[in-house]
Every structure is written in C-alpha cells, then in structure tokens.
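Hey Z.,

So I finally got round to the fe (ii) ion thing we talked about over coffee. Here's the setup:
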Amino acid sequence: MNLDLLIKGVTLPSGATTDIAISGSRIVAIEPNMKAEAAQTFSFEGCLLSPPFVDPHFHMDATLSQGIPRVNQSGTLLEGIELWGELKEILTPEAVKQRALQYCDWAVSMGLLAIRTHVDVCDDRLLAVEALKEVQKEISPYLDLQLVAFPQDGFYRSRNARKNTLRALDLGVDVVGGIPHFERTMEEGLRSVTELCRIAAERGLPVDMHCDETDDPNSRHIEQLAFETINLGLEGRVTGSHLTSMHSMDNYYVSKLLPLIAEAEVSVISNPLINIVIQGRHDNYPKRRGLTRVPEMLDYGIRVGWGQDCVLDPWYSLGTADMLDVAFMGIHVAQMTSQADMLKCYEMITTENAKIMELENYGLLPGNKASFVILDAADQVEAIRLRADRLMVVSNGKIVAKREKKVTELNLPNRPETVERKRS
Ligand code: FE2
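And the result:
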C-alpha cells in the first residue's frame, strides 16, 4: 500500500483506539496497530480523532466587520439589520473577499472544514454574491463553502429582492433562502415560503430559511414551510433556521407542529450563541431564553444541528469560528447536560450538520475524504469542556493546520512545575 500519511494511536468517537492511513485525498484504512510505511507518520496517543466540524448557518458577507461603520448598541436583531444596511452602502468586493478569506483561515485552524453561508441578495449589484463565489472557488481544495441566496430585507418587502434572488440562483448559488417573519405581514411571509419552496422545487435545490427568528408565539411560518415541503415533495431537502418563536408558542399547538416537522423531514438549525444574545430583548423579568425546543425535536426524530450564525459582525461582537463554543453554549441553554445529550451535541456540530448540508464522502470511513481533526482531548465531552486545542487538521489528505500541545508552567509552593491543560 502506497501511503502518504499514517496517524497512529488516536481515539475514535466510538472510544476505540486506532491508526488511520491516507493515500492521496482518501482514507484507505482505519485499523489498530497498522504495520505500514508512509511518507509521513505521526503519533497522537490518547487524542480524539474527529470528523471535521461543520457549520450549517453563517453570514460570511458580514463577518469580521465589527465596528464598520459602528457597533450595535441595543444588541437587538433589528438594530443589527439596520446596521447591516449602513455597512452594505460602503461594502467593496475586495473587502468582503478579504474578510471572508481571513475567516476561512480561522475556520481551518479550528478544524471547521464545511460552512453554509447565507449571502444577502438585496443589493442590486450582487456584490457579496460575486465576492463569495470567488472565495468558494479559491478555498475549494480545503474547505466546502455552500452559498444560500438570502433576501435579508424581505423577499417581497425589499424592492428587487425577488428578482435578485433569482439572479443569484442563476449565478450558481447553491441553496434557496428566505426570511418570512421579516415580510410586511404574516400573510406575505406565508406567501414568500410558498414561492421560495416552488423556486427550489423547480430548480432541484435545497431550501434553508431563516424562519420565525422572533419571540412572537404567533409567528408560525414553520408550519407553512413543513406543509410546502410535503406538498412539493421536498422531504429531506428543507431546513428551518432559528425557529425561536417555538420557544414561546402554546404547548398544545407545538404538540401538533412537532410531528408535522418530523413528517416533512424538515431539518432544524438552532444558533445558540446568537439566540441567547438576541431573543428575549423586549422582555422584562422573567426573560425568555428564546432557543427553539431542541431536546423535544430530537425526541421526535427531527434532525437538528447547531450553527454559529455570526462572528464579529453587526449582530454579534464575539466568536472565534470554534464550533465547540457553539456546542458548549447549546448544552447550557438547552440544558442538555446528560452524557448522552452532550455526545448528541457533538454529533450536531459534526455528522448531523454534515447531513443537513448534504455533504458527500464525509466521515471516518475507508473510501471517504481524508478530512478530519485531531483534538487534545480524550473524548467528545472533554473536547467540548476544554474547547480543546486542535493539534492537527487534515483536509482532503493534506495537513492544513498544526499546533503544539499547550503546557502551562506553574510556580507554586509544593506543586508540580508544569501541568497539562486539565486533561482527564
Ligand atoms: Fe442567520
């Protein structure tokens, strides 16, 4: 066997210890104690070998723009959208591209190798679409980037948004987006869901809509999204992002809605960092968390992923491209603290998100893409607890990031001089 890369002694998410052999861009074997020669061999005893992180909900046209032209003072979604409007006036393709490429560097360093980004199509120039199409091509050897045509200011509400959404799809944007709760009326929102789903069905494209990102329990566009999914035969290809209004809905209504979402095979993306910051802003005390009903959805067999949504942009002033941060926050806000729930949360930032993005040849199996991350952690729960260092990131058989283990030197009486970072 002609091996390019052999990595020894790693721990799989199943807990098994193994070696992994790579030839070209593919995994050729995952077996313990392999006796093989390779161009490069590394040992990472006791470290977790994970499939790469996947972020199915992001805004790359806005990322790393914080402070341009000003920061969001109220912290609300509406001020964020207003601020984005100001930023759009002064965007240049070069700046969008440069910031996106910088973010992709951060992502790779964190083992994040697939991102679905919404891209605003309300600007008649489609400047961000053009810039991100270039980025998509440039980074394709090491990072899968999917683009969603996103009429941020409303498919009907914003002049030309309908026409521009179609233009963006003609340019090869991969997914149909929408924002029904931001249309002028509930009715118009429902119509936008229907038309956008029809467009997706006609073009054979997946749908991923910002849906009911509000604390209003009467914002019920998800029902229409599930209905149209079944109506148009789009089962398995439609995603509802956010669904925060479900947090506040009447429980009886939700008991009817959850089986409908399951029947339609609509996937859900919850964005815990941004939801916990933005939802409940109009509440006095008690303040709602506003996250959608993740554990209840999982109980119904609905596919749910965690997304990042924003990093250093008009909506969110923090973030590092680290999906472990996202899972950490999700575990807290959804109170998913059992061992089984925390393992599920890890799957939600890896394999479940990969299924939502319909990624091919993803995962730790012979024949699949040799794309993975090695973490300075014994298992998935420890990885989340430590937001563990990524010691090596491999994409399509190439080592794209490496980092030494961190050791803290202590200077304390009667204590060891150095310690590893709180590993078990
Ligand atoms: Fe979003």
